[in-house]
């Protein structure tokens, strides 16, 4: 019985859709919903069925009758030309906000950088976060007892039974991938390595045990200091989406020679001096330099033939600046009122 | 490190038009990072001198008094608790708005009902000493209304150096060394101090004090002077003022002279009480030798640390800290003054083993040149002569030294130099820069032969690259042309996991309505135990920073469930995902590097999802919908299979293996009720975790393949099957599809359980699509369905549901 009713509804709706003028529409309505119409006939036939079924079918039939009447009214409006003139049709009502989730602010920045580097033909690589002492320090010209080891307070892991792997550390920078990439891909090489790094240090609004860096390495014949400074300007301007001035100054990192710090003109005050840039007009963004000959050697290449530049940029800082985030700890875990804004 | 501008002026005269801030900027751009520049006067902004006109009792408080002060332009009434004030005294007055060095902010306030227009200051409140016994009473030269900074003669500017930026430049750890650098930057003359090399003649075998260097490889030079006629007392003001400016605390004249000399010349010195020692041996420690250090610590030393000792006991840990036994005291009348050179590595070992870094050791650890000893010692000798008029030298200069190894000259080709810098610098200009920095340069046409001055050690300057850096920075990194590198074009194969992650994020955010998180890699053992998860495969941190972060995570889902718990009070429904690395103990694929055949522990990229809501089945269905959409984006069919392998925080009937083309890629599950209770999870929550690389591998190369439409119409039928509740959809689906090639597609559109179908049954309703490369007849389909139903009845006890 129900199936029969539903089929009838489908038939009528199809017929309404087929109707090409108002006259045939009215004929159709009389044929089905009229006093002697077919739906009415079916309802009359209900007397044959059980009480329980009568109730169910009756409800369904009434529903169908209402639906069909509405469909006829709507179709009539089309033919009478009233549809577009309906004064209750409010075009300013909002669209329905479909449920959507949120990208993490850090990956928004990260993907922007990844796309920039891919567009320049750079390889984007991943590396291990639990790293050997060798790659994290020694291969980067930081031998045992070097003060730079103290500069980077390190998380160590407990020895793993039955595995003679030497001292392992949570990588303190993404730089170990410089050597791994050189060993795997040789030269010329253009590569960036975004990723998580770890430092054993107290947490506050600007420091965390876990943060993100993007390491870059470009190796070829005759890569120069001038190439490096020009590239830094290009990169920072691309990331911030505006032409920026940069300031290049000496800095010390054992795996580059010379070592440089790259500042960009403060995007908040335009270099005039404000609290964000500690009144200097400059924001410290990047550590960089020409790759140290010992590091090129550790990568299995000849520093007489190849030279290159390397740089590391802090992604948390970049994301915080871009989105005006004032506490680095918001970038870890899931504080939804924060995440929902992205 | 703090640098006093006045001190620098002893050695270099800066042009008048260079302000302290401009000097700092220039140093930052060309030598080292200057973190701040502060005028000393800024420390005492709004602290002025007042004359006490009267002192009266506070009407409401016995211990307080009210002083009226004359500050020249105004008279102030100030409530004061100290009892050493009298009419007529000159005292420092902190006025409203002053910020004292101890952090106290001064305002006009009411104290027990009386207004106080400021505060009278004790010496410690002004950072001028430890004295808190009373208000600081000033001398007669104080003038009413004068700024305190002016009275104290605080006209210096203090530059704060970022020590990290000169880790490699041991020559810059002194005022003289920095003056030398400034002279080179600005091309100014450096004043040679009159005291340089003013030392007594050396004695071959000293009678005054026997000295033996047993480890010449670790102590290239050991100079000492035995001086008698010493009077230990407070240092003169000018000396104390400079120590304070550089951030050091004055102690007594002898110790102050050693510190002053170190700050000025870069050479650390040590003074022993001559009458408490019988000789000086530079030797290695034996295991468990004991020493009482100057800082009050008792240390039991490991073997192999470099010591200064006498016949009886260790006197000092060489280059790090002296012992209390031979300390300078007010009773000291004879001293042995040491200026030595210690190997940087031995110093670093001592620092690490003692957990101690001192002003001396941070200089030694950076490699000091042996030539610096006599420069330092002659300055200290010169200062002591000034301060202690009765000073006499016993014997002569003690000077134990090894031969200095000659510095090899570095060859630099002009052409190479220009290519590395990326700028054609004229040879003459390059030479001029080097000469300004004290380098010796021999011009050999296309090549320069360069020898560094002694203060730029062989550790720092040993390669052509080091020379290139000197020329480039003196020229100015900012002056380089902005030339982008010209390279051969290449289109490298990008990491497929990375590209996949970029797309997956979009699907999960836009389609799955999930929020991305980045959880810590460190997890809480106790939380995992509550979740009933085993931690035996997990790598443990040796030095965790907190008890909540002890292990490296071996799965993403526990962190995501913690995220749900953190947000459950504010949100009815939540959904998170993370793409990140997990760690397990078994060996992975990354070589350790310096050990053949050794590999780092397994590290793998995972995709984790977690959802929470009121109703478990609804949550699980949504989870599956999201996963299906993700797989569908790569034209991959995802199936949910029952599994016997599941973690302890779910149950067998709540957990499904995620399977694509017969290959399991992860799990999807609901958290079991007891576990949820234990961790305080108040919602129904489910999670999925996928091994990203496997999904990426399956997705690789997947794309659409166009099938021309068949002209033979399909026949569509709906069928509802009644089966026992324990029969799984997947088994029925697979049976139906395998039954006949004419069944092109089936689609589950309704699952129903309830009174109408009986308590043990459920109804599964499917749309069927039949199609073939010919016209199908209704009768043929009817027959096929009959046979299908027979088959399903035999296999699953299925019956057709009749409405």
From TrEMBL, chain A:
Localization annotation: Cytoplasm
Cofactor annotation: Mg(2+)
Record keywords, A-Z: Aminoacyl-tRNA synthetase, ATP-binding, Cytoplasm, Ligase, Magnesium, Metal-binding, Nucleotide-binding, Protein biosynthesis
Cofactor note: Binds 2 magnesium ions per tetramer.
Boundaries of every Aminoacyl-transfer RNA synthetases class-II family profile domain copy: 109-337
BP term (GO), one: phenylalanyl-tRNA aminoacylation
Catalytic activity: tRNA(Phe) + L-phenylalanine + ATP = L-phenylalanyl-tRNA(Phe) + AMP + diphosphate + H(+)
Coiled coil: none
Signal peptide stretch: none
Top-rank lineage group of the source organism: Bacteria
InterPro entries for this protein: aa-tRNA-synth_II, aa-tRNA-synth_II/BPL/LPL, Phe-tRNA-synth_IIc_asu, Phe-tRNA_ligase_II_N, Phe_tRNA_ligase_alpha1_bac, Phenylalanyl-tRNA_Synthase, tRNA-bd_arm
E.C. numbers: 6.1.1.20
Cellular component per GO, a single term: cytoplasm
GO molecular function, one term: magnesium ion binding
Binding residues for Mg(2+): 257
Family as reported in the entry's similarity comment: Belongs to the class-II aminoacyl-tRNA synthetase family. Phe-tRNA synthetase alpha subunit type 1 subfamily.
Description of how the protein assembles with itself and partners: Tetramer of two alpha and two beta subunits.
NCBIfam families: pheS (TIGR00468)
Descriptive protein name: Phenylalanine--tRNA ligase alpha subunit
Organism: Candidatus Falkowbacteria bacterium CG23_combo_of_CG06-09_8_20_14_all_49_15
Gene encoding the protein: pheS
TrEMBL record, chain B:
One Pfam assignment: B3_4
Domain TRNA-binding: residue ranges: 41-149
GO cellular component: phenylalanine-tRNA ligase complex
Gene Ontology MF term list: ATP binding; magnesium ion binding; phenylalanine-tRNA ligase activity; tRNA binding
Domain spans labelled FDX-ACB: 710-801
GO biological process, one term: phenylalanyl-tRNA aminoacylation
Domain B5: 405-482
Record localization: Cytoplasm
UniProt keywords, alphabetically: Aminoacyl-tRNA synthetase, ATP-binding, Cytoplasm, Ligase, Magnesium, Metal-binding, Nucleotide-binding, Protein biosynthesis, RNA-binding, tRNA-binding
Cofactor note (record): Binds 2 magnesium ions per tetramer.
Enzyme nomenclature, EC number: 6.1.1.20
Keyword Protein biosynthesis on entry: yes
Cofactors demanded by this protein: Mg(2+)
The keyword Metal-binding appears for this protein: yes
Subunit structure: Tetramer of two alpha and two beta subunits.
Family: Belongs to the phenylalanyl-tRNA synthetase beta subunit family. Type 1 subfamily.
Cited PANTHER family: PHENYLALANINE--TRNA LIGASE BETA SUBUNIT, PHENYLALANYL-TRNA SYNTHETASE BETA CHAIN AND LEUCINE-RICH REPEAT-CONTAINING PROTEIN 47
Descriptive protein name: Phenylalanine--tRNA ligase beta subunit
Species of provenance: Candidatus Falkowbacteria bacterium CG23_combo_of_CG06-09_8_20_14_all_49_15
